[in-house]
């Protein structure tokens, strides 16, 4: 996965997926992309960067279920009381973390729990959209997972597309692999 240079084959795949979708928003353009990057102190990973600038900046009919968000937007159910999104701060995870399944014998206060999980939701990623019920898809823009797509929900966080036999959401990593999985009508979870 090359996050620095747009692969023409990946862009062709993305154009094919999104070109015929009803309601696809026009591209944001390079000026808007560069402005967003300057405002947040980041460079978006490829091929998403070129996709938003040249192909499409949002799609109401997915992916994900409630649509692909335009650059810099959050879904309506994101909430107004959330911490500030800090895209330049590194995304804190490199492996799935299902905090709901953890039992360390000690109950955390709401404040302690939020201090642990808020960076997962708000650091180093932008929101691609939601599948509802608090399940959000993020594209990591900063840190070791840059370019990977993660599903983050109240129960935990997991990457899409790790190349391992025990992966919860196997597939081709990155934005193009994630979009292609959706376009092919394949489930995110193989046992679903």
In the CATH hierarchy, what is the architecture at level 2? 3-Layer(aba) Sandwich
**Sheet with most strands: strand arrangement:** 1-2-3-4
Total count of domains: 1
Topology as H/E string?
HHHHEEEEH
Largest sheet: 4 strands, antiparallel
Q: Helix amount, in percent?
A: 25-40%
Strand content: 5-15%
Mean pLDDT reading: 89
The number of helical runs is: 5
Highest CATH level, the class: Alpha Beta
Strands, total number: 4
Q: Output the structural class.
A: alpha+beta
- Low-confidence blocks of residues: none
How far from one another are the termini?
27 Å
- Using only C-alpha atoms, the radius of gyration works out to 16 Å
- The dominant shape is globular
User: What do we call the CATH topology?
Assistant: SMI1/KNR4-like
Please provide a written account of the structure.
The protein is α+β, with helices and mostly antiparallel strands and 192 residues long. It has one domain: SMI1/KNR4-like (3-Layer(aba) Sandwich), CATH 3.40.1580. Helix content is 27%, strand content 12%. It has helices at 8-19, 30-40, 48-54, 110-122, 175-183; strands spanning 125-132, 135-140, 149-153, 156-159. The chain has a four-stranded antiparallel β-sheet with strand order 1-2-3-4, covered by helices on one side. A hairpin with a 2-residue loop joins β1 (125-132) and β2 (135-140). α1 packs parallel to α5 and α2 packs across α3 (48-54).
């Amino acid at each position: 996965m090359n996050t620095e240079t747009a692969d023409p084959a990946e862009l062709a795949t993305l154009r094919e997926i999104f070109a015929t979708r009803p309601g696809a928003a026009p591209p944001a353009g390079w000026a808007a992309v560069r402005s967003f990057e300057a405002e947040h102190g980041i460079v978006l990973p490829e091929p998403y960067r070129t996709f938003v600038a040249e192909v499409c900046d949002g799609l109401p009919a997915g992916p994900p279920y409630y649509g692909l968000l335009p650059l810099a937007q959050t879904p309506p159910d994101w909430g107004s009381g959330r911490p500030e999104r800090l895209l330049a701060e590194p995304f804190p995870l490199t492996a799935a973390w299902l905090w709901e399944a953890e039992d360390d014998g000690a109950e955390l206060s709401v404040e302690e729990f939020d201090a642990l999980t808020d960076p997962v939701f708000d650091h180093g990623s932008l929101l691609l959209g939601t599948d509802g019920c608090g399940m959000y898809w993020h594209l990591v823009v900063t840190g070791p997972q840059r370019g990977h797509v993660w599903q983050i929900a109240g129960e935990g966080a997991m990457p899409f597309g790790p190349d391992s036999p025990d992966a919860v959401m196997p597939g081709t990593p990155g934005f193009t692999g994630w979009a292609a999985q959706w376009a092919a009508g394949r489930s995110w979870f193989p046992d679903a």
